Amino acid sequence: xxxxxxxxxxxxxxxxSPLLGPALLVIALVVLSTFTSGSTQRAVTNGLxxxxxxxxxxxxxxxxxxxxxxxxxxxxxxxxxxALLTIPLAVKGALLPDLPGFLANASxxxxxxxxxxxxxxxxxxxxxxxxxxxxxxxSIPIALLSFLVIVNVVASNWEELTRGTGSMIGxxxxxxxxxxLAWVLVALVAAFLFQQSRTGLKLRGAREDxxxxxxxxxxxxxxxxxxxxxxxxxxxxxGNLIAHQLGSIAPVAFYLDLTFTTLAMLIIGGKNCLAGxxxxxxxxxxxxxxxxxxxxxxxxSGIGFGATPGLRQVGVALVMLAxxxxxPAGITGGRxxxxxxxxxxxxxxxxxxxxxVDRPASGSSLISAASPPNxxx
Amino acid sequence: xxxxVAVNALSLGSLYALIALGIALVFGIxxxxxxxxxxxxxxxxxxxxxxxxxxxxxxxxxxxxxxIVCAVLMERIAFRPVRGADPATLLVTSFAVSYLLENLARIxxxxxxxxxxxxxxxxxxxxxxxxxxxxxxxxTLAVTAAFLCGLALFLTRxxxxxxxxxxxxxxxxxxxxxxxxxxxxxxxxxxxxLAAAIVAMLLxxxxxxxxxxxxxxxxxxxxxxxxxxxxxxxxxxxxGGYVLGLVTILLxxxxxxxxxxxxxxxxxxxxxxLLLLRPQGLFPSRALQERV
Lengths: 377, 292
Prior knowledge:
The structure holds 2 protein chains of 2 kinds.
Chain A: H1 9-33, H2 38-64, H3 71-86, H4 89-95, H5 101-104, H6 110-132, H7 139-157, H8 159-162, H9 177-196, H10 198-208, H11 210-215, H12 220-246, H13 256-269, H14 274-295, E1 298-300, E2 303-305, H15 311-326, H16 346-352, H17 360-370
Antiparallel strand pairs in A: 1-2
Chain B: H1 2-30, H2 37-51, H3 56-79, H4 87-109, E1 114-115, E2 125-128, E3 131-134, H5 135-157, H6 159-169, H7 171-176, H8 181-207, E4 209-210, H9 216-229, H10 234-254, H11 263-277
Antiparallel strand pairs in B: 1-4, 2-3
């Protein structure tokens, strides 16, 4: 990033705007929400937590273009690890009498627990990734789904560690608007730096044209493993935030429902860019919040519709299907937020307006930021 | 004991093979791993729930027709708009369809499991020589054998079947020589729907309960069986199904009690190990190899 100083000001601005744009958007939303009611603030906090997970997911799915149905397994690992490290000792002794010694006596502050939760998930991801990333891009999501099932089965049965299908209670409820926002910003910066890094660029190259990337000597397996590990870290942090928001967790909270919701957020927003992760999370959270009110029953011109649980899920699924059919690159079209807009020849501008993914706007700023400009060499 | 284990493994394997076939048929032609296949099974289950007072022939007929119609509609409404997109998009589309159907069922029928005793007559124990088993196991074996034979005949002897195989081998070339894309894909979904209807009936005869999430396990199993069989090969999917059934029953029969709850984790762990040893599955398909 030191090279930024050597760029002309507008160009430097364009380089960092894919980070600044979403970050400012999120901060603005949070500041606005502090003027609203408690329930709205809770909804915003939920959205921020989802955003941490979605950004984590983006670091793998977005940059590599390979789908994953297994990342929520890391959220579960993060949530349980962090819960085990932070539940007050007295509660823990009563709740989980059979814990191994080092866990039974562990008592940490939230941040260290979060970091350790992320690290544990990242280590699991490193080994899992080294194995799974050898598969092709159709089999990887299935193998990762197997991983999710394994995590769920283990969490539902390992009574000594997780209380099985029962809830783990007594987790300090420390996640608030502020801490969620802080982690979102950390995740945003990390994802941005990652996508500009050598690994990020190689993966995005492989995403667009795998044979060409291989021919250029890119070791796709290695880059995918790195992305997978980094992304697991942040998904686990997200899981840890969930645990500390709810105060109690159960394995069912980290299964297909959350998998679907987070994937929908990423894909509706546009899975190929960081802005997509943010926009998608925002849109889906808002939609889910509206439908959640509708679920309790609505009254239209005197006629009441009964409460219909499941409406929220149906709504999100329909929006996602419509999005896949009519705007497969997502709301953002896979284009990063770039400011100030680059002036382009008219013909080129028209071509890029056809919904093509990740071309002139972000593509060129990406190259100028990551590889040293030729005149410097 | 050995015989019983073998019959159980064959019976469960047959069920898994049927599921895997339903997924592999569609995958061969349009590279779509249909996650929503499990929800076709779920639809079948609810049709049985709604009709189970009638004669069993009517129940069977209604289930088969309803699930096939649902499968073809699914293709027409959800998958046709994204046809030709990359496999990841197709996969995620089917995930969304699955989620949609599951939650629609939740709205219509409620989330609680409901009991159906439509095929309870199949639960009778039967002795075949030295082996004691149930009618259901035998019916499962027979129905699967009949379905496999019928499918094999259809694919090798009928024009439509040959067109389907051609489309699975090379879709573009098949179209160039006159295979109708829409028709052949609808056909694949219809057969897949037939398999789902059979699975629904066998599953309900076995468990006797139906809930919106009943499709989840079949979908997972079918997925995994097709992948370990080698995506794009029908007999690979069938063998994948039997392998998975065998592993499940072996673990079920011989695991110590304390580890038994982890059976599914071990099954899926086995899948990951198998994929590591053979990343392309047991019977890799040539049609899938990327051409540059």
